């Protein structure tokens, strides 16, 4: 059953105004979390009620605190951000998730929105843009930074990007892990899947992308800046 927000405490389920926007920060770097916690709370209408270093902790804290907005990184140990977004949306279809990531490629942004994100801001954006994006997402609006907006404008006319759109969020997350050279067993453990299921996904991903080997898969990742973004 999905989470129903409490009316008596001033939170909303789409119809109730917020006096203070309660935020959860999810990023595996403690320094990043501390810095943006301080900046987000500068104006007083945003309160960072909790932070988390990985998807598992984020899921646990969301169930406990039901924040109004989740600010989510994509590249994290274990279950990555794309899959974490999908997981949170299954728990609470009304959850409002803003991606805050170093990845500035159309493929990551499209998969984040497909998984259920309501906004996407790159870490190279001015900090003020993150604050306004949090407010927009809390208000039920879509928030996209100019860098990603420009990328998305050309994404659909590029053949490889169009192919990447055929992947589900789970398939894209497994692709990301494969490009990080994670083993089948490591991926299975992170996503709570059987190794056989991961192997089936692996085969299906290569089939959808039109590659015949893992070497070709890596070249595909490099060509589409998936590997460069992960390693930067």
Please explain how this structure is put together.
Helix 8 packs across helix 10. The chain has a 6-stranded parallel beta sheet, sandwiched between helices. It is 52% helix and 12% strand. It has 12 helices and 6 strands. With 232 residues, it is of the alpha/beta class. The termini are far apart. The N terminus is likely disordered. Strand 1, helix 1 and strand 2 form a beta-alpha-beta unit.
Features:
disordered N terminus; 12 helices; 232 residues; alpha/beta; Arc Repressor Mutant, subunit A; 52% helix; Rossmann fold; single chain; 6-stranded parallel sheet
Low-confidence stretches: 1-17
What is the CA–CA distance across the termini?
Answer: 39 Å
Helicity level, as a percent range? 40-55%
Order of helices and strands: EHEHEHEHEHEHHHHHHH
Number of strands: 6
Number of helices: 12
- Beta-sheet strand percentage? 5-15%
Largest sheet: 6 strands, parallel
Coarse morphology: globular
Describe the secondary structure blueprint for this structure.
Blueprint: E1 21-26, H1 30-40, E2 46-52, H2 55-65, E3 69-72, H3 81-91, E4 97-101, H4 106-115, E5 119-122, H5 127-138, E6 143-144, H6 146-155, H7 159-164, H8 169-179, H9 184-191, H10 195-209, H11 214-223, H12 226-231
Parallel strand pairs: 1-2, 1-3, 3-4, 4-5, 5-6
Short description:
This protein is α/β, with parallel strands linked by helices and 232 residues long.
């Amino acid at each position: 059953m999905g989470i129903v927000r409490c009316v008596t405490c001033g939170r909303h389920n789409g119809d109730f105004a917020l006096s203070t926007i309660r935020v959860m920060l999810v990023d595996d770097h403690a320094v990043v979390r501390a810095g943006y916690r301080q900046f987000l709370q500068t104006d007083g209408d945003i309160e960072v009620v909790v932070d988390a270093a990985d998807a598992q902790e984020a899921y646990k804290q969301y169930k406990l605190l039901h924040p109004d907005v989740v600010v989510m990184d994509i590249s994290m140990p274990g279950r990555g951000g794309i899959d974490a977004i999908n997981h949170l949306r299954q728990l609470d279809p009304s959850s409002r998730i803003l991606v805050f990531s170093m990845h500035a490629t159309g493929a990551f942004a499209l998969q984040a929105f497909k998984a259920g994100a309501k906004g996407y801001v790159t870490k190279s954006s001015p900090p003020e843009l993150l604050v306004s994006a949090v407010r927009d997402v809390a208000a039920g609006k879509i928030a996209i930074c100019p860098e990603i907006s420009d990328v998305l404008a050309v994404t659909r006319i590029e053949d490889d990007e169009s192919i990447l759109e055929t992947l589900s969020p789970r398939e894209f997350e497994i692709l990301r892990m494969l490009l990080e050279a994670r083993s089948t067993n490591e991926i299975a453990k992170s996503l709570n899947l059987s190794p056989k299921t991961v192997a089936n996904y692996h085969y299906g991903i290569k089939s959808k992308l039109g590659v015949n080997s893992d070497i070709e898969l890596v070249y595909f990742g490099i060509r589409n800046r998936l590997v460069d973004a992960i390693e930067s």
